[in-house]
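Hi X.,

You mentioned you wanted examples for the new student's onboarding notes, showing what a folding record looks like when two proteins sit in one file. Here is a clean example. The first protein comes first, with its sequence line followed by its structure tokens.
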Amino acid sequence: MLKFFERLSNFLSYWYFRYLMVTELYMVETWEQRVTNTAFMLLFVVLSYFNCVYLLNYTASIAKYLVDEVPFSSVT
């Protein structure tokens, strides 16, 4: 079980390192990293909320409209 957490820690450390390299946050100070990470997380949360609340209902209504328009008698 301990090996699992060690592997998980290595995996997360690797991807955090890649995130720092891609966003070039390794060059800034710690407080700037925290502000940027907070902004990214806030953006992610807002977009997730939008997708779950608005986009899901919109696509469900479109799917319902499309399904209601298909004549099922011609399918068989």
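Then the second protein repeats the pattern, sequence line and then tokens:
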Amino acid sequence: MSSPATIRTVAIVGTTGNLGKLVTKAMLDTNRLSVTLISRSGSESTLPTDPSVKIKQGDYSSPAFLADAFAGIEAVVLCLHHTSVPDLEIKLIEGAAAAGVKWILPTEFGHDSGNEELTRVGILNAKKAGPRKKIEELAENYPKLRWIGIINNPWSDFAMKRNMFLIDAKNKTANLLSGGTAKFNTTMMSTTALAIARLLSLPVLANGGPALSDYGNKFVYISSFRVSQRDILDSVQGQLILTGLTHTDVQDFIDDGPAKLARGDMTAVLNLLMGSLMKGGLGGDYESKKGTRNAVLGLPKENLDETVKALLQ
């Protein structure tokens, strides 16, 4: 019996970004996917030089360029900066759909967009609904078109390096929100990339096991760690001693967000994103209610203490 059909051709938009670089590597590491990288003409970013990679550069506003770039592509991964969501993302989606692309992974890669209450608080999630809706609308004319949203919460390594968990190892300070005991999920960026490659390597149709078609127009939840702010702090203090510890009510921290925005202070993003993540019961802990697809995708089991130690070196 022949093997179940799988996707063979994948395009990545945003390959030079933090996630895009890792997604490109993970795709190439499968040794079975044909990878096309799509970039703006004139971009000063350095593109991969792997000879097996196809590179298409042009004008994203040109339907002719998008038709050529997406020709023969079965799945597209959009690793865009949040400022490109939703407007540019929708243009790319329209071009991909017209070219016959069947699977689109829009720029999710964050908080749970399937949680309406969390979306009302989070500043970025509301923008992500438009691209998903556009894909569903386009499917009326392109009936095989589907989206899959990867939900990973803030990336563990990205957030720690930028003190987004409110733990500043360099200055040896921390600010615990409501005691820092609420659990939430967080995922390493490399694990997110691996999950994308493993997902797109699944058989398209079910054949007695998991299949890509199981996740059409659905969210796929992954996680490296289910932890609390206090858990991260304890791991950090296993490597160094913090000298300054403060406490803030988590709702007060969230409520400061809109006031900051009104003043043009974009650190409000931290209040809204991380405050909503760390408020117990709001949805940062999606694993306890929705589970994850870690096992289906064969994702590695990761150790928080080892990860924190490596990030602090």
